[in-house]
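Write out structure tokens for Large ribosomal subunit protein uL18c-like.
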Amino acid sequence: MVLASLDQFNGTTTNPRLSVFYSGKQLYAMVVNDQNKRCLFYGSTLQKSIRQDPSCTTIEAAQRVGEELVKACIDLDINEISSYDRNGLARGDRMRAFEIAISRHGFLPR
């Protein structure tokens, strides 16, 4: 088993790393400052604030996670991310909905 060194991650306060993971049913996203070992934003499709008002499907919730991530980044004066880590997972409907929401802010390479 090979453990990843913290030196390989390159997120900073103004240029953090975006890490996204999804399970069989849910999506989880974190914006991370690796230099200070801090999570600047965390959102998931499990959060009641995301799933309610009005209630929605998991795909719609994934889009809302992306929208909340963009709002948090604007509040933190973050205009770009250093890297986008999908944890080696292929894209699906939830990931696509999330990526559309964050690409509107310019976080994904074209």
